[in-house]
Amino acid sequence: MGAAHSASEEVRELVGKTGFSSDQIEQLHRRFKQLSGDQPTIRKENFNNVPDLELNPIRSKIIRAFFDNRNLRKGSSGLADEINFEDFLTIMSYFRPIDTTMDEEQVQLCRKEKLRFLFHMYDSDSDGRITLEEYRNVVEELLSGNPHIEKESARSIADGAMMEAASVCVGQMEPDQVYEGITFDDFLKIWQGIDIETKMHVRFLNMETIALCH
Amino acid sequence: MFLLLPFDSLIVNLLGISLTVLFTLLLVFIIVPAIFGVSFGIRKLYMKTLLKIFAWATLRMERGAKEKNHQLYKPYTNGIIAKDPTSLEEEIKEIRRSGSSRALDNTPEFELSDIFYFCRKGMETIMDDEVTKRFSAEELESWNLLSRTNYNFQYISLRLTVLWGIALAFTGISLLVVGTTVVGYLPNGRFKEFLSKHVHLMCYRICVRALTAIITYHDRENRPRNGGICVANHTSPIDVIILASDGYYAMVGQVHGGLMGVIQRAMVKACPHVWFERSEVKDRHLVAKRLTEHVQDKSKLPILIFPEGTCINNTSVMMFKKGSFEIGATVYPVAIKYDPQFGDAFWNSSKYGMVTYLLRMMTSWAIVCSVWYLPPMTRETDEDAVQFANRVKSAIARQGGLVDLLWDGGLKREKVKDTFKEEQQKLYSKMIVGNHEDRSRS
C-alpha cells in the first residue's frame, strides 16, 4: 500500500507540471514502459520498435525532437542521450489539447510553445534561424520516399517556398540583399491565422469511468 | 461392504471408496460422453454461475476502491487515440486553406505547415500504435478473479481471496486425474481409417474437457470436405484441438523433436498428415507441391492451415501469407473467437513456454469460444493470390468481430519492409510535384 501511495503523489505532481489528466498519465506510463522495455530511460534505438512510425517521412526529425535539449528545457542546444518518463511527458505536453477553461493569454502562450516546438524541428543547428539549407533539408526528407522526384526538383520546390516565406516576412527586398533565414518572430508571422493550437494536439478518446448501475 | 475390502483401517476404507466414486463419476461424466460426443450441459451451467460471480466480484472491488478513494485502473481496449479517417490530402489542404494571405495562390507548392501533419501523426503513433498492441494480451474491462488479468489486485477483499483459493485447489486435483487418462489414449499402432478418425476425435474431445473448454459451433453445414483447405485465424495451439474435435483434418506443420515428435509420428501412422522437415520449410515450391498433391487426392482429409503464421491476441486478424491460396483448391474459412472473460487464450511465446502456457490454460476458469464455419470460397479468375487471401481474411474478420489489419504478423519479430515505408512518402510527394508541374506549365 505504501508503494501505491507515493506513486499517486508523483502522478499528481506530473499532472500539475504537464497538464495531462491522471488517467492519461497512467496510460502513457504503460506506453513508456512498453517502448523502453521496462527500463527507466528511453534511447533513440527504442523508437525503432514502433512499426507505424517507419511510414512517417520525417521520423528522424520527430525522434530527434524527443532528445532535443531545447524541447526538454535543459539548455539551448545539443541532444540528450536518453530521456526518462518526466522528459517523455514534457515532450508530449506540447501536443496536449487546449483546455477550454484557459483565458486568452494562456492560449497565446500555449500557441507560442507549440510553434516553438515546430521551429526547433526545422532549425537543426540551433542558431535561431531557419536557413535555406535547413529548409531544403526538410523538404528533401518529406519527399525522400518518392524515387521519381530528382534532387533538383526537390531543391527548386524548397527555393520557391523559401522565397515566398521571405516575401511574407521582409516584404520587398533590395536586389543584393541576402535573406539570412527565418527567425522565430518571422515564423510566428507565417503561422498567423492558422489556429494551430486547436489542431496541434493528440486526439485522446474521451473515456469516463464506467458506472455500474446495479 | 466392509467384509469385501481387504483393509482393516477405517481411513483406508474411506479412501478406497471415495476414489472409486471419483473414478466412476469421471467415467460417467467425462469419458463416456467424450466417446459418444454427447454433453450433459454441466459446463454451460458452470459458465453461467461464473459470470454471476464475476459481476459480483467487480462490484465489491469498485466499492473497495471507492472507500479508499483511489482511482481504479480502467483499461482502454481500443487505444487512447481517436483516429479520424481523413486522408493526407484533406488534412493538408485544410491547414493551408486557413493560412494567411493566400488569396492569389490557389495551389501553393509547399508550406511550412505541411510538416505539421506528419509531426502529429508521428506523435500519435508513438503514443499508441495498432500493431504492437496486438502482440500483448487483451485487457479486460471487468475482472475475472484471476490475479494475472487484474492491475487493481490490491483492492481485493478477504472473501474473494478465499473463494479463489478453494476453486484453484479443486481444479488442480480434478485435472491431474483427467490428464493421466489422456496420455493413456494416444494411438500407437495401425488402425483402419474409420477407427483412426474416431480415435482422433475422442482424444481431442478429452483434451477439450481437460481444458474445460466450452465451444459453440455455428453453421456446421459448412464444415470442410475432402480435397479442401481449411483456414482459420490463429490465437494459440489450442485452436488445433478445438477445430479437430469437431471434424477430421490433416495437419500441416514442422517436424518437432521430443514429445511433440512422438505424437506426430504416431498420428501419421493412423492417417496421412503433412509434416515438413525444417529444411523443406524454406523451399516454398516444395511445400506448395506437397500440399497440392495432398489436396488433389480426394480420399485424403482436408488440410488445416493458419495463414497468419504466428499467434495473434484475438482482437484482430493480420496479413494472411499467400502460399496456401495459390494452390487453387476450395478454401473453407473458419473464424475462432475466444471470450476473454473466462481466461485469456493468447500464447505470448516470448513470455511463456509451451508447458507454462498449458498450465495457465488449465488453471483458468474455462476456455469459452465460438467457432463459425463460413461458406467455401474459391479464387476468381481475375484475382491473384494476395487479393484472394485478403478477401478470405475480411470474411473471417467480419464474422468473428475482429479488426481486419493489413499488417504482417511477422512484425512480432522483424522490422517493417521498405516497400511499406515508401507508400506515404509517395502519396505526399505526388501531391506536391503535381502542383509543381501545373505551375511550371502555366
Automatic annotation (TrEMBL), chain A:
Location of the EF-hand domain: 110-145
Compartment annotation: Cell projection, Lamellipodium; Cell projection, Ruffle membrane; Cytoplasm; Membrane
Function per UniProt: Functions as an integral cofactor in cell pH regulation by controlling plasma membrane-type Na(+)/H(+) exchange activity. Promotes the maturation, transport, cell surface stability and exchange activity of SLC9A1/NHE1 at the plasma membrane. Promotes the induction of hematopoietic stem cell differentiation toward megakaryocytic lineage. Essential for the coupling of ERK cascade activation with the expression of ETS family genes in megakaryocytic differentiation. Also involved in granulocytic differentiation in a ERK-dependent manner. Inhibits the phosphatase activity of calcineurin.
InterPro entries membership: CHP3, EF-hand-dom_pair, EF_Hand_1_Ca_BS, EF_hand_dom
Membrane-spanning parts: none
A GO term from the CC aspect: lamellipodium
GO biological process terms held by the UniProt record: cell differentiation
Entry GO MF terms: calcium ion binding; protein kinase inhibitor activity
Coiled-coil annotated residue ranges, if any: none
Homology family: Belongs to the calcineurin regulatory subunit family. CHP subfamily.
Keyword entries, A-Z: Calcium, Cell membrane, Cell projection, Cytoplasm, Differentiation, Lipoprotein, Membrane, Metal-binding, Myristate, Nucleus, Protein kinase inhibitor
Leader sequence segment: none
Descriptive protein name: Calcineurin B homologous protein 3
From TrEMBL, chain B:
Native source species: Neomonachus schauinslandi (Hawaiian monk seal)
CDD domains (UniProt xref): LPLAT_LPCAT1-like
Family per record: Belongs to the 1-acyl-sn-glycerol-3-phosphate acyltransferase family.
InterPro entries: LPCAT1-like (IPR045252), Plipid/glycerol_acylTrfase (IPR002123)
Listed GO MF terms: glycerol-3-phosphate O-acyltransferase activity
Keywords: Acyltransferase, Lipid biosynthesis, Lipid metabolism, Membrane, Phospholipid biosynthesis, Phospholipid metabolism, Transferase, Transmembrane, Transmembrane helix
GO BP terms: phospholipid biosynthetic process; triglyceride biosynthetic process
An example Gene Ontology CC term for this record: endoplasmic reticulum
Protein name (database record): Glycerol-3-phosphate acyltransferase 4 isoform X2
Transmembrane segments: 12-42, 162-186
Localization, UniProt: Membrane
Phospholipid/glycerol acyltransferase domain boundaries: 228-339
Coiled coil location: none
Organism phylogeny: Eukaryota, Metazoa, Chordata, Craniata, Vertebrata
Pathway terms, separated by semicolons: Phospholipid metabolism; Lipid metabolism
